[in-house]
Specification:
Strand content: 25-35%
Largest sheet: 5 strands, antiparallel
Structural class: alpha+beta
Shape: elongated
Low-confidence stretches: none
Order of helices and strands: HHEEEEEEE
Number of strands: 7
Radius of gyration: 14 Å
Number of domains: 1
Number of helices: 2
Mean pLDDT: 94
Length: 114
């Protein structure tokens, strides 16, 4: 089974998360659309994607690190829902991460639901 392409899954969860932060979500969504991936690492219990946002991109005024909590997502038939966070550093999208603490992160995402 091929499953859902990871980038499609990632994009949807990023935008679901940012929708819950209307004051800053629009700028971060724009940053996501123009960013490139610096690094993506998978582990036994999750993943993280590190972004590079162009220097010319509009930034948030907040200079401290922000942690935005995303939705809890059920992936495949795993009992425990996955947790997602977005990290913002110096006003720019920096990191998106997902984890399942009590199970193994699936190699293929066949389905997911909020």
């Amino acid at each position: 089974m091929r499953g859902i392409p990871f980038t499609v899954f990632e994009r949807e969860i990023v935008f679901l998360t940012l929708k819950n932060y209307p004051r800053i979500g629009e700028i971060l969504s724009w940053q996501y659309n123009i960013s490139s991936i610096n690094k993506r690492v998978f582990s036994e219990h999750g993943f993280f994607t590190e972004f590079i946002v162009p220097v010319s991109a509009m930034r948030l005024n907040e200079k401290s690190e922000l942690i935005l909590n995303g939705p809890m997502i059920r992936i495949n038939d795993i009992k425990q829902k996955a947790r997602f966070t977005i990290r913002v550093r110096n006003g720019a999208l920096y990191l998106f991460e997902g984890q399942i603490t009590d199970d193994i992160w699936p190699h293929v995402i066949e389905k997911y639901s909020v």
